[in-house]
From TrEMBL:
Keyword Manganese (UniProt): no
This protein's name: Two component transcriptional regulator, Response regulator protein GraR
InterPro entries from the UniProt entry: CheY-like_superfamily (IPR011006), OmpR/PhoB-type_DNA-bd (IPR001867), Sig_transdc_resp-reg_receiver (IPR001789), WalR-like (IPR039420), WH-like_DNA-bd_sf (IPR036388)
DNA-binding region: 126-223
Gene name, Swiss-Prot/TrEMBL: txxe 1370-graR
PANTHER family reported for this sequence: REGULATOR OF RPOS, STAGE 0 SPORULATION PROTEIN A HOMOLOG
Residue list for modification 4-aspartylphosphate: 52
The organism of origin for this protein: Thermobacillus xylanilyticus
Domain Response regulatory: 3-116
Keywords: DNA-binding, Phosphoprotein, Transcription, Transcription regulation, Two-component regulatory system
Sequence ranges assigned to domain OmpR/PhoB-type in this UniProt record: 126-223
Source organism phylogeny: Bacteria, Bacillati, Bacillota, Bacilli, Bacillales
Pfam family, one: Response_reg
Length: 223
């Protein structure tokens, strides 16, 4: 699960953002003490930071500069001070994007997802795959969705990984069986059906009843 730190002193806004991102499967936390924001980022090790400009004690530009001394974590500025000078300053201090208040929460979520994909999905060693709030951890073979953590068997993991790597595209049964058993030997077609059925039961218990879609005569996909 991607961990997102929200550095926003308006607690109503911060909680609203946190609750919305949590609905999309992110682990969102809000900073409530603003004396030393950089230390909190260092300890929490988030995968993305949402940072307001107008903060108590020191502004967002200062904290962005401090964070950049020890971390390359993606930073999105969120601020009503959205004139060109502030946007340029945010980028020069090390910010990766800027969203002007007031903003649509769905637009914010889309930008968060896009920046996470650019930052983590295309690096040499990918440790997680994410699609529509579902996060697959490639290191420990677990699937997370809305605070539900699903332990996957070896075959579960291979199925989910293949589908997420090809999100939006139908994966044929032959392709899936080749990935699962990595052999040209004949495998009973019913064996794949049994594996898919067992996996779907686990997913349904976490609220993902229709996550794997069957395309009759073609294969499976996640949309």
């Amino acid at each position: 699960m991607f961990k997102i730190m929200i550095i926003e002193d308006d607690l109503t806004i911060a909680r609203t953002i946190s609750e919305h991102l949590s609905q999309w499967g992110y682990d969102a936390t809000c900073v409530t003490e603003f004396h030393n924001v950089a230390d909190q980022v260092l300890r929490a090790e988030p995968q993305l930071v949402l940072l307001d400009i107008a903060l108590p004690f020191y502004n967002g530009f200062h904290w962005c500069s401090e964070i950049r001394k020890f971390s390359k974590v993606p930073i999105i500025f969120i601020s009503s001070a959205s004139d060109n000078m502030n946007i340029v300053m945010a980028m020069n201090m090390g910010g990766d994007d800027f969203i002007a208040k007031p903003f649509d929460l769905h637009v914010l979520t889309a930008k968060v997802g896009a920046l996470l994909r650019r930052t983590y999905s295309f690096q040499g060693q990918v440790s997680v795959l994410e699609h529509n709030g579902v996060v697959l951890n490639l290191n420990d073979a677990t699937l997370t969705y809305q605070n539900h953590k699903i332990e996957l068997t070896k075959n579960d993991f291979k199925i989910v990984q293949l589908l997420m790597e090809n999100a939006g595209r139908v994966v044929s049964r032959d392709e899936m069986m080749q990935r699962l058993w990595e052999s040209d030997q004949f495998i009973d077609d019913n064996t794949l059906t049994v594996n898919i059925t067992r996996l779907r039961k686990k997913l349904a218990e976490a609220g993902l009843e229709q996550w794997i879609v069957t395309k009759k005569g073609l294969g499976y996909l996640v949309e």
